[in-house]
Amino acid sequence: MNSVVRCLLGSALFLAVSPLLAESDKTPGTGFFKVEFSPLELLGEQGAADAADILRSDDNLGWQIYVPDSYDAERPAGVVVYVSPSPRGGPPRIWKQPLEEKNLIWIGANNSGNRVAVGKRIFLAMLAPKVLANDYVLDANRIYVAGFSGGGKTASRVSSARPETFRGAIYIAGAAAWGTSTPPPKLAIVKQNYHVFLTGTDDFNERLTRRVYESYKAAGVENCELIVVKRLGHELPGRSVFVRAIEYLDSRPRIL
Known about the structure:
The chain is an alpha/beta fold. It has eight helices and eight strands, in the order H-E-H-E-E-H-E-H-E-H-E-H-E-H-E-H. Helix 4 packs across helix 5.
């Protein structure tokens, strides 16, 4: 993680999401759609200047979003912030129903795949709750980050850097360890959160995923679930496995 990202982590751009973030009279959209902003539009003049080493002034920052049709501002929604290995950040169609059933909004940055600098990918994932907070009422206890393959490695960096915002995480077929002597500075908060390590018996990253899971446990992070799906390769799992992962994250005690 570069020094600019470290500096921005402490800025007002990434204040923890509060339980009520939107005005009650807003009627935002539901279903699948995308939003786009320039750095100036999203961050303001000072924020855009602070992020100049990560974002160009002419960058077009875009996210794909799915909001359940049943969204209700009186029932704050959880969020899955997704880091994709590909240029598109949208959810698999087969996960639409679980998102609906679990009252979860999905948001994933576009043009944030494995070929993009990891600092920018981290930054865009951290901005995602801010993007939604302009229009939606969010449940601060259910802000989760997830990622697949290289996106899983990025998601693990996001969750350890901002554990006060991202209260749970799903690392699918990829995760990054902290190293033997450099656990994250916010390890005490990381330990309060829930983490799912998800892989398959036919996934070439199975050993890596298991190894990082063990490194979390060795660091005293007890709230970890390892899910290994039989005959699953290097791919996203089906609906039932996704539901199992979400239910584990949702089992975390709420913080008032």
